[in-house]
Amino acid sequence: MDTSVFNQLYAFLANGELPKSDSERRKIRRMAPKYTTKDGRLFYTGPSYQYMRVVIMSAEEKRIALMECHDNPGGNHNGVRGTRDRVVAGYYWPTITQDVEEWVKSCHRCQLNDPIKTVARVLHPIKVKEPWEVLGMDLIGPLPETREGNKYILTMTDLFTKWVIAEPLKTKTAAEVSAILMTKLYTFGMVRKIITDQGKEFVNQLNDSIFTMLNIKHAVSSAYHPQTNGQDERTNQNIKRALRKYVNSKHNDWDVHLAAVVYGINTAKQHSTRHSPYYLLFHRHPRLPAVMNVCPMGDDFEVADPEEDIDSRVQEMTVLNETVLRNIERAQESASGRPMDPEKKSIHEHAPFKKGMMFSCLGIPRRDGLETHYPPSIKDHSLSQALQRKG
């Protein structure tokens, strides 16, 4: 990657040095208002100077940034869009989109664990108007038992912000489920409605008494339409997909990775709301570990006084919630307009293979709990070899 212009920018901003060529001087002066230097690093601030993104100056720095934002815990091995969103939160270089796409498509763990894209079932959208109003609750499991004795995951999803809570369980008894539910309600606040399936861990006298005491409506999805709460289904799929990319060969350490996976989900921008759940719940952007190490805000940015800032914050929150509500409604309308063709079980999107590329031959997988089981002869092949064998 050509970093000469960034080196020239740094020399100008830090030391007042300009290149000898008139055209290069004009270029550096034109670019300079969007950059600044701090602690020996060059940062991209944009014209408004409201944020700092560290400028990547070498191929090795780029590799580290991509690994932190995609491979490391919290990155969740997300797709191109999710990884790019995380990269641009703290880093800048001219070919981000192209490099992220190549990085994600060449990720071996993603190739082995990402499911084949299928046509989504017709879901029944649930109308919500504000954060922490309606909560979907579900279970994942049984999973391979961990060293701590955990075999299940209790998941909760706020249907407005898409904020996810996931807690490991040793059993799925009503007592254990209700204890975690009470803890989370007293931590985040009460909701108007909780949606679950008809499982005994959710539909029982203990939970009925809790819902009555807290004045929470309990809505139970029909056995004939378990996909009513599609958000729970997506939450569970996202958690299992991410966990598969971090667990050991026995898949019995998933509870060690669960918190980081959930953090990655909550700090990723959602397609339906166009914001991260973290931002919608706390009304500030998360401090991501990868970005904090290279992008210190320091004293260059003025911190607003809490008392003076509260009125503008309330106004911003009101406008934001209205925008998110419109985004959710548009996403639901778009999804409801794509009914599944019963004769068409799945869509196989063929990658644009080129001679010399590497690909994985997986066979037909079967899933069991958290795991994806492939035939024992998983091999990487050269496409040129495959084409030669084909004749």
TrEMBL record:
Per the record, the GO terms for biological process are: DNA integration
Protein name in the entry: Gypsy retrotransposon integrase-like protein 1
InterPro entries according to UniProt? Gypsy_RT_Integrase-like, Integrase_cat-core, Integrase_H2C2, RNaseH-like_sf, RNaseH_sf
Region Disordered, residue ranges: 372-391
Task: Tell me any Pfam family this protein matches.
Answer: Integrase_H2C2
Using the record's annotation, list all stretches that form the Integrase catalytic domain. 127-285
User: GO molecular-function annotation terms?
Assistant: nucleic acid binding
